[in-house]
């Protein structure tokens, strides 16, 4: 694959001619609305190169051994990694390996379950790249009764397209995560009622399992939350228990956001734990990268010290944030799709900047009298995240969420990843 960084004077015709790829393909894969471009825009060029794998060099590795392991060749590896010394591979160094032996992983995509959802057609289009669909969201009362989602059409689409649906269960109340609701349900009696209701409903509706998305649980309920997960898994049996866990780089039991999460205990109980390596830059905060790569690696370094990498997923965003400046305490940034973020820059005619340390695209533009700051993801930034995913040998990734368009990402997955079905 090739990533082309647009420079002043580039045109789609010129780029297509340079790489011998049809104009229509470049526009479709990158979601371009017209031939307009801006400097700094990263374009994914689906050329005829082999799919790519990523590898971090270990002591004793040789190019010939790696070529054999990955069904590649030494000349191909050298060409993909200019400047490396073939007889002195640096331990800890990063290699790109061209090969048809694609990385195998599982994916989990979140989808809103609202009446008349317009996203089932997109679900069908992307079905080959989706292992699990997390249907967002079921909730519950303080007594443990379920508040169901509008999921009939979604479940039918999953059955038609060989996608395993997971029932998202969250402490969602009045469109927000409720610490009070979580605290109430974790008492022994109501949580037993809730567990029985979950098990009965997933059996009745044909869910493959449950995805737990509890947030703002009081940290003093840490042991109760762990007990809830253990009892739920016992009730589910062979069905999937997947947990979404806020990102952290160490254990801080008193932290109001992450204190209730005992990574080591959760890793023992759950089939899949997804660390939420997103929202470093968040809607209510100042403009910042959504998931700076240095922070993602710190999170994965800690998470893999507590949980088996083969039970671990990282999260990726299909969205960006648009902040109105100056940021006001009572005003949140607008959450927009990656594609909208890209095309706003193009429509505004502003160049896109790239933070190399964070591996994050961003820009500023004006709308009326107000200045805006936008951070988002693109093909360059997600490629860096797929590299980390492979170097840490993770089970896969989650995506938040289906309704946000990011055609570059799905084109990359289709070409370079073998998604388990």
Keyphrases for this structure?
single chain, alpha/beta, 8-stranded parallel β-barrel, 5-stranded antiparallel beta sheet, 21 strands, 421 residues
N/C terminus separation: 24 Å
Main sheet summary: 8 strands, parallel, barrel
Helix content: 25-40%
Q: Specify Rg, calculated over alpha carbons.
A: 22 Å
Oligomer: single chain
> Strand pairing plus helix content: what structural class?
alpha/beta
What would your notes on this structure say?
- The protein is α/β, with parallel strands linked by helices.
- The protein contains 14 helices and 21 strands.
- The protein has helices at 12-19, 23-30, 63-69, 74-80, 120-125, 152-160, 179-185, 188-205, 222-236, 263-269, 293-306, 338-348, 379-391, 407-416; strands spanning 2-5, 42-45, 52-56, 94-98, 103-112, 132-140, 146-147, 164-170, 172-173, 176-177, 209-213, 240-246, 272-276, 312-317, 319-325, 334-337, 353-355, 360-367, 370-375, 396-400, 417-419.
- The chain has an 8-stranded parallel beta barrel, surrounded by 6 helices. The protein has a 5-stranded antiparallel sheet with strand order 16-15-19-18-17, with helices on one face.
- A hairpin with an 8-residue loop joins strand 15 and strand 16 (334-337).
- Helix 8 packs parallel to helix 9.
- The radius of gyration is 22 Å and the shape is globular.
- The mean pLDDT is 97.
List the helices and strands and how they pair.
Layout: E1 2-5, H1 12-19, H2 23-30, E2 42-45, E3 52-56, H3 63-69, H4 74-80, E4 94-98, E5 103-112, H5 120-125, E6 132-140, E7 146-147, H6 152-160, E8 164-170, E9 172-173, E10 176-177, H7 179-185, H8 188-205, E11 209-213, H9 222-236, E12 240-246, H10 263-269, E13 272-276, H11 293-306, E14 312-317, E15 319-325, E16 334-337, H12 338-348, E17 353-355, E18 360-367, E19 370-375, H13 379-391, E20 396-400, H14 407-416, E21 417-419
Helix pairs in contact: 8-9
């Amino acid at each position: 694959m090739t990533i082309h960084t647009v420079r002043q004077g580039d045109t789609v015709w010129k780029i297509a001619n340079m790489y011998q790829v049809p104009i229509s393909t470049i526009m479709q894969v990158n979601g371009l609305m017209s031939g307009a471009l801006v400097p700094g825009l990263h374009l994914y060029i689906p050329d005829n190169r082999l799919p790519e794998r990523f590898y971090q060099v270990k002591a004793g590795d040789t190019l010939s051994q790696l070529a054999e392991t990955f069904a590649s060749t030494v000349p191909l590896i050298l060409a993909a990694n200019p400047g490396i010394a073939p007889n002195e591979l640096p331990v800890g160094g990063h290699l790109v390996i061209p090969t048809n032996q694609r990385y195998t992983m599982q994916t989990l995509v979140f989808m809103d379950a609202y009446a008349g959802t317009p996203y089932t057609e997109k679900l069908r289009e992307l079905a080959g790249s989706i292992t699990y669909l997390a249907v967002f969201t079921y909730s519950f009362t303080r007594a443990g009764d379920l508040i169901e989602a509008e999921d009939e059409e979604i479940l039918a689409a999953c059955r038609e397209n060989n996608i395993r649906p997971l029932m998202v269960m969250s402490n969602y109340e009045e469109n927000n995560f409720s610490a009070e609701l979580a605290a109430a349900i974790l008492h022994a009696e109501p949580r037993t009622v809730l567990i029985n209701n979950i098990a009965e409903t997933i059996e009745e509706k044909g869910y493959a399992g449950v995805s737990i998305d509890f947030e703002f649980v009081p940290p003093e309920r840490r042991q109760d939350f762990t007990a809830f997960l253990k009892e739920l898994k016992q009730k589910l049996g062979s069905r999937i228990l997947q947990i979404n866990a806020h990102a952290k780089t160490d254990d801080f039991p008193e932290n109001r956001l992450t204190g209730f999460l005992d990574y080591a205990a959760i890793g023992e109980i759950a089939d899949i734990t997804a660390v939420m390596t997103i929202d470093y830059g968040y809607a209510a905060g100042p403009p910042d990268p959504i998931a700076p790569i240095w922070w993602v690696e710190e999170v994965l370094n800690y998470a893999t010290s507590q949980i088996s990498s083969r039970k671990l997923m990282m999260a990726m965003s299909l969205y960006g944030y648009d902040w109105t400046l100056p940021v006001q305490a009572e005003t949140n940034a607008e959450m927009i799709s990656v594609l909208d973020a890209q095309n706003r820059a193009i429509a505004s005619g502003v160049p896109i900047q790239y933070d190399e340390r964070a591996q994050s695209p961003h820009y500023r533009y004006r709308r009326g009298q107000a200045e805006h700051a936008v951070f988002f993801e693109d093909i360059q930034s997600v490629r860096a995240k797929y590299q980390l995913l492979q170097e840490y040998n993770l089970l896969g990734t989650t995506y938040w969420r289906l309704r946000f368009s990011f055609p570059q990402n799905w084109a990359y997955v289709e070409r370079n990843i073998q998604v388990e079905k």
